[in-house]
Amino acid sequence: MFFKGLFLLFYQPFQEEFGGKIFKEPFGFNLLGLSRKLDLGGTLNLLVASIVWGFGHISGAHINPAVSLAFLANGHINLVRALFYIACQLIGSVLAALTLVELIPTHLYTSASSKNSIINSTLLRLKRESNSTKLPGENQIFSSSVKYSNIGLTLLSDQITPLQGYLVEVLITFVLLFTIFACIDKKRNDLGGSFPLTIGFAVTVGALFGGKFTGGSMNPARSFGPAFINQNWSNHWIYWAGPITGAILAGFVYKFLSFGKKKIQKNH
């Protein structure tokens, strides 16, 4: 019974948080190559919905340290589980970024200032001799991400300050987590439709709004993998401080607004 309990407590959630990252991030990183915002929005929505639908029953499909910390702050999970999830998410993000390197043709990459990149030192075929230039068909959906590499780096646009970038990440992550807490509220019986699609739409809105400013991360792990393999930590603190602040704030605000309210019944 002890080992069965240990399996249920850690191994199954590990499969979800680690496996979910491996499954999701290669697609998510590569969305930077889509040519139209409509393509980006639709693909991102369905991608997140698929992950939440497929893995949500195991551990909640956090796939995001900000989500795990917000759930910890609101008492949905304990500290040990939160730290375990976050470790799996970060490892999964790094391996997912490396997986994407192997999946995408090398001519789609650009590299301007990543001479110390782990990718360029271990996978020499990705290194280019010239400075970064815009490749034919390369898009500007995430203008901050084309300076170094299009493998998914989330970099701050030169149009805004670090403080503004931080606030953008706070805002879009707040919207995402507020939506998540609304979807899992046990006091509500008035909810209909698909929760995974609803959460997917929230991610899409955040990505489309924040994409041109910060890359629209909303997820420290999503930014960590590409930053790690490129060894590019430019303003990386934004992608931790912003989402975590927004996530925890959303949890507290939702809890405050719903405090003392009776169970909501669906009107027929």
Give a structural overview.
The structure is a single chain. It is built from 9 helices and no strands. 62% of the residues lie in helices and 0% in strands. Helix 2 (37-59) packs across helix 7 (195-214). It has helices at residues 2-30, 37-59, 65-73, 79-103, 118-122, 162-183, 195-214, 220-230, 238-258. It has a single domain (10-108, 136-258), classed as Up-down Bundle (Glycerol uptake facilitator protein), CATH 1.20.1080.10. The protein is an all-alpha fold.
What is the global morphology?
globular
C-alpha-based Rg, rounded: 19 Å
Helix count from the secondary structure assignment? 9
Q: What is the name of the CATH superfamily?
A: Glycerol uptake facilitator protein
Please name the CATH topology.
Glycerol uptake facilitator protein
Number of domains: 1
Question: Which CATH architecture is right?
Answer: Up-down Bundle
Mean pLDDT: 72
Largest sheet composition: none
Termini gap: 45 Å
Beta-strand percent range: under 5%
Keywords: Cell membrane, Membrane, Transmembrane, Transmembrane helix, Transport
GO molecular function, one term: water channel activity
Membrane topology: Multi-pass membrane protein
Protein name: Aquaporin-4 isoform X2
